[in-house]
Inverse folding.
């Protein structure tokens, strides 16, 4: 609910600046991901399990807009909706709660439900052991293994005032974030011009362009949460239309094969697609990684 309250606060300021009445109502919606918080995402259907019911509420007119963590969105916008605003992006890095990376001894246990996190840490520390962990923030904080660590998103802990639990902030050179991590994303109906205009006033163009590049990369791969894929775009220069630098990673689940590449460009969607093509053209990558998702294939592959 923090995210909805944050967007509500931003919209109230816009409404006040327009001289009109400031007010909105939060419509609470329970999602599949919320209800089945301990189940692996791969069993629930991957990306989308935290957003489908919220999107349905907007499409059915029970709500005017939907507020999401951008990392929970499917790579393609649902028909009838538009991604109208990316209001802000918090620190996208991952952290360890419990022990620091350097303090994790041989065979230490690391808890995470994300194959992306496991693959990258396994590539760096193949000696570590793993336990699957899902659930809300409180649940995960209560399940820190003795002598081990839980991997979490820094933005989530910061938003809840729990930054004091952080033992180690992992640099992106060690742990590249999930696509959209740290960013808020707001959708509305594509035919709702009034709400879209309101949301445009809280959009942060720089954050939106970075997210667009990352999402285009994921869409070109046909990716979902059960794929060891990561990407982070950052501005290469100041300004809302400057060049972006996109770093991306694709790995096998055990981290034995891990490819990271950098590309820069001025057009976010083209940059993301170019990165996907580059990844697919890496020698042996297509054969090594089983990256078919729901009948979709990597760019340039054959059935």
């Amino acid at each position: 609910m923090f995210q909805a309250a944050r967007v509500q606060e931003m919209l109230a300021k816009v409404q006040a600046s327009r001289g009109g009445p400031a007010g909105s109502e939060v419509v609470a919606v329970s999602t599949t991901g919320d209800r089945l918080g301990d189940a692996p995402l791969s069993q629930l259907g991957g990306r989308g399990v935290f957003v489908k019911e919220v999107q349905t509420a907007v499409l059915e007119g029970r709500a005017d807009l939907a507020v999401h963590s951008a990392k929970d969105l499917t790579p393609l916008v649902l028909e009838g909706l538009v991604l109208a605003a990316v209001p802000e992006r918090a620190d996208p890095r991952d952290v360890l709660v419990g022990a620091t990376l350097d303090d994790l001894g041989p065979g230490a246990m690391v808890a995470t439900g994300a194959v992306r996190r496991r693959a990258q840490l396994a590539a760096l520390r193949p000696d570590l052991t793993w336990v699957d962990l899902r659930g809300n923030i409180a649940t995960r904080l209560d399940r820190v293994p003795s002598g081990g660590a839980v991997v979490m998103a820094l933005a989530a802990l910061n938003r809840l005032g729990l930054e004091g639990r952080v033992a180690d902030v992992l640099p992106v050179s060690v742990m590249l974030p999930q696509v959209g991590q740290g960013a808020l994303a707001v959708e509305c109906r594509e035919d709702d011009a009034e709400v879209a205009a309101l949301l445009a006033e809280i959009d942060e163009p720089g954050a939106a362009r970075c997210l667009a590049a990352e999402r285009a990369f994921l869409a070109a791969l046909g990716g979902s949460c059960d794929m060891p894929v990561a990407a982070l775009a950052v501005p290469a220069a100041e300004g809302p239309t400057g060049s972006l630098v996109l770093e991306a990673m694709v790995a096998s689940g055990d981290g034995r094969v891990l490819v990271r590449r950098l590309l820069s460009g001025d057009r976010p969607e083209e940059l993301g697609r170019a990165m996907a093509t580059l990844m697919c053209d890496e020698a042996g990558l297509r054969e090594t990684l089983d990256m078919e998702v729901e009948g979709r294939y990597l760019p340039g592959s054959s059935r």
Remarks:
- Residues 291-303 have pLDDT under 50 and may be disordered.
- The chain has three domains: 2-89+183-203, 94-169, 213-288.
- The chain is about 30% helix and 20% strand.
